[in-house]
Amino acid sequence: MSEVRYPTTQSQAVWGQRRAGGTDVMDRLRHGRIAGALVDLRDVAGMEGLVVLPDGSVEVGTKVTLARFATDAKVRAGWPGLADAVGGLATPQIRQVATIGGSLLQRTRCAWFRSPDFSCHKSGGSGCPALAADHHWNSIFGAGPCVAPHPSTLAVALLAFDALILADGRGTLTVPELYGDGQAADREHTLTDEQLLVGVRLPPPLPGAVSGWLRTAARARAEWPLVEAVIRLVPGGMRVAVGGVAPVPMRFLAVEAALEAGEGVGAAAQAVAGAASNPGSSYKVMLLQRTIETLLERLLTPQKAAP
Amino acid sequence: MPTSRRGFLQAVLGTSAAVALAPDAAAATPVATPGNGDAPISFWVNGEARTLAVAGTLTTLELVRERLGLTGAKEGCGHGACGACTVLVDGAAIVSCIHPATSLHARKLDTIEGFAKGGQLHPMQRAFAAEDALQCGYCTPGFVTEAIAFYAAWRLDNGTKTPDRATIAGTLAGHLCRCGAYDNIYRAVAAACAGKYDSEVGAPPRVEAKDKVTGAARYTVDVSVDGQLSGGFVRSPHAHARMVRIDVGAALALPGVRGLYPLIEQGHKARYVGQEVAILAADSREALRAGLRAVKVEWALLTPVPSFDAARVAGAPLVFEPKEKPLSGAELPVPAGKAAGNLRGPNSISVLMDEAGADRAVADPKNVVVHESFRTETQCHTSLEPHAVLAVWRDEGLDVWLSTQAVDAMADEIAEAFDLTRERVRLHSEHTGGGFGGKANFDVQIRGCIALARQLGRPVRVALERHEELTIALRAGHSAEFHLAATRGGEPAGLVINGWGDGGASVGNSLGIFARLMYPYSKKRVQEWDVLSHGPPTRAMRGPGGPAGHFALEGTMDSLARALSKEPLALRRSWDKNPERQRLYDRVEALDWWKDRPRSAGTGRFRRGVGLASGVWMYFVQSNTQVLAESSPEGFTLRCATQDIGNGSRTVMTERAAQKLGVPREYVRVEIGESKYPTGPMAAGSRSVGSLIPAIDDAIEQLGKDLVRAAARAFGLKKAVLAAGGVAHEGGIKRWDELLPTLPRFQRIGRRLPDDIPYFLPFAIGGLSVGKRLGASVQLTEVEVDTRLGRTRLLRSWSGLAVGKIATPMLARSQVCGGVIMGIGAALYEERLLDPNTGGLVSANLEDYRIPGIGDMPEMEVVFDEGGFDNVGAGGIGLAELCTVPVAASIASAVHAATGWAPRHLPIRPDRMLAGVPA
Q: Which of B55, B80, B173 sits opposite A23 (nearest CB)?
């Protein structure tokens, strides 16, 4: 049985698997995917704020729940694409409990990792059974030794809004800095055991920006994405961030450049350059372009009903 | 090879060193729940303040169920996907199975047990009960709890405005119901929010509804007895390996680990990942998990063929030698055919059907012939209550609590396996949280649990975890080729079917029989093979072989209609000899959305189409069914060793007796779920209603005679006869409420007498008779395909069923909707995935094995044609399987109509759609 500690200060909340809402940790604990001590953040003071700073940016503590974040009136008004994404991910019960920090640092949702029948790089073993098997869910960009795409919808949304990550012991990071290149075999992010993610900062909303989120999956709700995109449209600040296609949340700079150049929906075609797929995952290349296209179409013609 | 644990060690290890490995007696003393590191938490539960010390790893669900004894919240998946464990924390719905109990500190916890105040149900509970928004009831506390939180917020913001479907779907997106009660759940939530249930309403349509909406209904997983141990399985990590030895010394040395019973003998093979090697018992689940990790099994690895495709390659390793017997038969009771490599077969059901003529017809250039190939994937039953057993040996016999759909049959099996008289086995199953065919077998976990309980002299309880459930409870996938010939004039000319069942290490998979039951043109060759591979054995699931069989048959019919330039309905009308289905076709023709459907495939991004599939199912009667009827001063009681798995048997029995006696339902008590009662039907083969009703009628007729005689004697009644409400006589009617308190108790056992028409076979097989009648159905669905993103959304569903008289219309409708929803899963989402290299289970949880959610539902209409079945005992036959078998076929047909692309591989995943339909 794992020991659980309940520190009261941030500086004590290190050296172990951190637990806030517990929605990922408790699942992995039960299925033998966690060894060693747990550090529960329940009694740690702070990290629960959602504060607008004088410049219009917002700081959100790591313990803020996704439900609170997504329904906050300031967040909804300033970063609607982000609020949509966070308000639509997982299920209502999960969003009530899961936190900013947990959502960003959750472990992979790869079916092989979550099944007790396998061992892999990320579960303390070696190798990637998914690579040798069905490629349906695999990354189509920059797959490392682990081929699973990054699981965090929140991270995709934060990437689309140039959010910064605040980490004790590490300072202020961009989203790409938090996740690195996705090539580490055994972990999904770059924070070390003595570093603590304490919150995120959203830069002030850009005037005139429109933004949205689109997830493509088979079922209507409560399903991990095949591909999902968060897009912000504003001249000089076009952002196209996508999940489900790479081991890290990924920006599509060529699509952004095409949008800046005024290309409109057709810019989506720029997304697929460099995609590496095989027969099992080639549909994802098509779906990537079409997901971006569909969301662009919606954002560029806002009067049209959303699909 | 049951032995004591020390004896077991010696037997397996065979050396004196083994004895040294065995723990001494002191190590085996009970260990209390670990106190070190437990944190005190103070919280309110249902308004009452509590302080408890809890471990940091304890979940809120464990706290609620095991420490507080509140068993309303259920474990369904164990990882937060199904919502059965939902409770409120500070008024917000959360999934308690992955919520740390220590997070409850200084918070308010509300559970399903706390919502009814002063005997008054919460309006949402009333709504769920009154709208029949539940079936087995296992997921119900979770749904109701979430809906209550929603109701509070909605009423505050919106008053009694009615929430729309999208809002309700969003709210309940974190809940799964496998029975498929979603349609009525929409209704219930909308009506409660609109204020329709703010005050008390009449009795609900389902007799046990109140227990299910309050969390009071007890399922096997809710039962506990003093001193019970937690049992769990050591499973094979290999798809193909020979067990060399098992070393349990380290496991038995752990605190709280009590003993082990082997399930594979040394030197024998494991043939799939997850095969049960041994069962282990420990004081707590935590100790059990540690114990399971500590058991060391040495295997000699053999080359596996973990997939259907690999097994068919020439020279593939053999899963079974020709003389070995494959594992249990699965979908239909066909014997294992001749061995050829990993194939067994062919089994043919086309003897005497001019097989050579069929071959000639499909090769004849004068005919119009279509050739189609189909593939379906393995589907999991996914009952939300897992397989669960609690075994308690006592001096007077064996008590077994079992989550089962076959109370009577399981008691027989247990008695035989443990060499007990049937009376010494007392099987209890008050409520069963879904079965769908998965809980009708005498599974190894039942046998192992009982054997280990006997060996240890302690009660042992087993409840499978979700990944185990998804490992063992399956129906086979199929691959098939259909060749169908018609004359140029559209007359049937011949049909050739070659089918291959993908049943892992089991045989008995068949999809061809439906081609014999519908469209009975005479020239047919139907040949089927089982393909053995190193995957878990499959078993019967709701409508065995039916979804795949209908998908293939009806898809082929659609293709032929196109080839003949005929309307799909017109072709069926001209070939179909079944008068019931012809009446349903009349109704389809009158439907506006059938008449007005788009006749050609669409062209834009979103394309709509309407699909049609005909359905057939067989009629089974458990002809040894008996029902005991008793009269007493309090009213009438029926007893039968049957069960209610959400199919409504309790309500059907109550309703039938109440009608026969002319009394309100409150006068009738139904006691089922106990093996000590007279033999009852298992809930399988759609047999419950057709078996029970005639036996109830017979019991009540006999009881009525006793009562009439006694009443006549006691009150001097002249020309006394049984009548609605009491005993009629010359001077009027003597009502039951006057009569019963004065008369002695009477008991009569009614039998299920044969139907007026003979059965298909003159004898019953294992108490089961095959009737000559067939259930008939037609399923229509309308889909909207998003060709750009590969999604299929269902807009409308229309189910027409002709099964004769419907015993309880509201419950029957609920069951049909559930069958439709299960078909939606098969058509669009459900696909058990084994790793093609190792045979391990990839879709090991309810995020990776995806059953339909409430947001995936179409508008549903259900129509019953009640004529034509007067010659069967109940005036009607069952519908539980008939309603689900044509659904996937109908959806595939609708996608075909919408896009011009015919799906031939289920489920119709987005990637398959994208490959098939150019945007």
A: B80
